[in-house]
Amino acid sequence: MRQKVIFNIIGLLMMGSIFLGCEKYADDYKDYLDNKEVVYPGLVRNVRYQAGNLRAVLIWNPSPDPNIKNYVVRWNNGTGTATVEATTHDPAEEITVVIPGLNEYVYSFSITAYDEEGNASVGQDINNVRVYGPSYESTLLNRGYNTSDPYQFLADGTLQLNFNRRDTMNVSTTISYTNTLGEQATAELDADVNTILIPGYQLGTAIKYRSSYQPEPDSYDVFHVMEFADFPTIIKITELDKSLFRAMLLPGDNDQEYSWVLSNLWNNRYYKSTSDNPDEGFHTGGTGMPQSFTFDLGRTAKLDHFRLWQRDNALYAVANFKVFEVWGSDTAPNMDGSWTEWTKLETFTSVKPSGLPSGQVSDGDRTYARAGEKFMMPASVPEIRYLRFKVLETWGSAGYLHATELTFFEAN
User: Fold this and answer.
1) CA 309 to chain centre
2) What are the pLDDT digits (tens) for 172-230?
3) How far is Cα 109 from Cα 48, in angstroms, rounded to an integer?
4) Which residues contact 377 (CB under 8 A, 6 or more apart)?
5) Per-domain residue ranges for the chain?
6) If you count Cβ atoms within 10 Å of the first and of the last residue's Cβ in the chain, which end, N or C, has fewer?
7) In this structure, which topology does domain 137-234 adopt according to CATH?
8) pLDDT, tens digit, for every residue of 369-407?
9) CATH top-level class for 239-411?
10) Dist CA 236 CA 151 (whole Å)
11) What CATH number does the domain located at 45-131 have?
12) What's the pTM?
């Protein structure tokens, strides 16, 4: 019994010693905190970035903690810092910070909030922030134009440029041109459209263009192709005024027959009727091949192309032109009928799209012929005023010729 009492007393003494020791250690942390409470300012929300040109743009929604005084942004292991004042504590608003002077690289940033007492929040990181610059810009290419149909003039004379569909991340293309006042002007082609009107374009002047890109969908900066590219030379193709045309009959030329006079070739009636009316075209007598005729355009022009309409009730047959030469002169022809002062512009051959044998004509052949068969002049042809046709062969090997209309177009 005595021994048990001694053990109880020893146990109580040990418990008291432990309690006193624990009470002392519980206050030891105050020695390290200088008897102050640890405070952590609130965290920002929705941290994100926008890619920039040798800069980064960081964006976040601020902490609602009203005690926050500023934020410190750090990068490059803390060698780069920026302090941002806490201008708002409304989480619905945004704080935007532009970090300039960066290299073209991928960065990591940390954002730490500080209150008035200098207490710091737990740092928040934003990684894989891409910064773009000259290396990226050097890879950019100008948007392609439609090579088969780069431009056209609308009915009111306005120039329209035609581009291909944009590449990914293309945002716009700047068109630089000279207007009719002789001033440099620009127009912007939006990324989602393929055509653009160029108001007041001055014919004969160059057009250049340069495209712009964003490397990422919400990039802060737009990047431009380093140099403007040349757009194809603009040539306006216009129809010659047929009211100026005048028939000429030179020695050696073939005269008109059957009231199908030469001037019918420019009377614009081909679109009104395709019937075999006696006043619809030009017809010569049967003197054999070759046969020729001459007329005056009324003024000098650099021809781009012309269209020829056959006699419709004899398509690709009888006396419609098959192989013929076109000669030109810029001075009044010698009235002796010689060819010495004429320049041969080109030899042309009419085409039958179907290739069917003589006497057979397809619907495609009819459509092609009734649109007026187009014959392109060589780019090297000089300016001329007088034209002389020499027909070498007709579709039906006839010894005479006939046609219903000729329309000429010049390049401006």
Assistant:
1) 37
2) 999 999 999 999 999 999 999 999 999 999 999 999 999 999 999 999 999 999 999 99
3) 11
4) 303, 304, 305, 306, 345, 346
5) 2-33, 45-131, 137-234, 239-411
6) N
7) Immunoglobulin-like (2.60.40)
8) 999 999 999 999 999 999 999 999 999 999 999 999 999
9) mainly beta
10) 10
11) 2.60.40.10
12) 0.66
